[in-house]
Amino acid sequence: MSSRIYSVVKAFGALLMASAFCLAHAQGAYPSKPITMYVGFAAGSATDIVARVIAQKLSERLGQPIVVQNLTGAASTIATAAVARAAPDGYTLMTVSGALAIGPAVYQNLKFDVEKDLTSVGLIGSLPTVLLINESLPPRSLSEFVAYAKTRPGQLNFGSSGNGGSTHLSAELFSHAVGIKMTHVPYRGNSPAAAALMAGEVQVLMDTVLLASQSVKTNRVRALAVTGKTRSPVLPDVPTFAEAGLPNFDASIFFGLMGPAQLPKDVVDKLNKELNEVLKDASVRTSLATNGGLQLSGGTPDQMAQLVHDEVAKWKKVAQQAGIKAE
Fold it and tell me: What is the structure's pLDDT at 45?
């Protein structure tokens, strides 16, 4: 009996060793199967375009397919919740945008914590935001506009893509920074808000540089300043906010790669390394920077985690000051 027990124990021990070896081998060979990359916005959105460009090149470097899956609704919080619940094995990722940090500021009952329930993999870059005004307004510069608005508190209307969205909070952040008061008029998306600006229904709009450049081409709107450390190649004649006299203002929209909490460090390191290499690719730079207006950055997971922390704090403060809650 004892010899039989010994044999069973020995066989069980060998099985455990084999399992441990297979597990270690599987971890070392990551990825060994397709990866799902969630996007919280519809196909064709800025986040979706960024995700698909990155996914294609990252897939080539990792040697496995990356399937982009759009899970829309509630300003990307539905997709974020799905990723937060996923197994931390590196096979569920998410391309996130600035909406990730705005969600906690405007939604009262989120079922996740963006800083505790997600793992930062790395930054992709940021999309500058542009201050636009209707061409009929007299101001020709940022300083002239601020002076003009201060003498007309509450009389100027600013549009947005919706209550509690990035364009709404960006305008509120600007208003607070320069000490002006404007009236908010929400629309259902960026395009209707831009159309309203061109038609004169609203006089002011904070919009992404890519959409702003299209509006400027109509000659019915005027771009006064753009966020970011340098001028955008998409709008090279528009000064930065720093150049225009507001050095500490930034409402750029960041993009990055994240996964569930407790993602293994070796997986995070590998993904981060390959992501940074992808961002050096000439075709990626052409698609996202030259044509798309993104300011590509890259960096470490810790740098992204710090940015998320800072952005959450910033937008919570703006939402509280302006009394903003998502509808």
Answer: 87
Q: What is the pLDDT of residue 21?
A: 34
- Select 129-226's CATH number: 3.30.390.30, 3.40.50.300, 3.40.109.10, 3.40.190.10: 3.40.190.10
Superfamily of domain 34-126+253-322: Bordetella uptake gene, domain 1 (3.40.190.150)
Q: What Cα–Cα distance (Å) separates residue 251 from each residue in 31, 120, 177, 326? A: 36, 21, 11, 19
Q: Say yes or no to pLDDT of 133 above 50.
A: yes
Query: What integer pLDDT is reported at residue 22 of this predicted model?
Result: 41
The C-alpha atoms of residue 156 and residue 158 are separated, in whole angstroms, by: 7
CB proximity list for 318: less than 8 A, separation 6 or greater: 105, 169, 172, 173, 176, 324
Rounded to 5°, angle at Cα 205 from 204 and 208: 155
Cβ atoms of 71 and 82 closer than 8 Å: yes
**Sheet strands side by side (includes 183-186):** 183-186, 157-160, 204-208, 129-134, 221-226
Domain boundaries, the chain: 34-126+253-322, 129-226
Answer yes or no: same fold for 34-126+253-322 and 129-226. yes
Percentage of the chain beyond pLDDT 90 is 85
Q: Looking at residue 37, what DSSP letter applies?
A: E
Region 24-30: mean pLDDT is 60
Beta strand pairing status for 183-186 and 157-160?
Answer: parallel
Overall average pLDDT of the 190-203 stretch: 95
Average pLDDT over residues 128-136: 97
The residue among 37, 47, 154 whose CA lies nearest residue 102 is 47
Burial of 90 (0-12, 13-18, 19+ CB in 10 A): buried
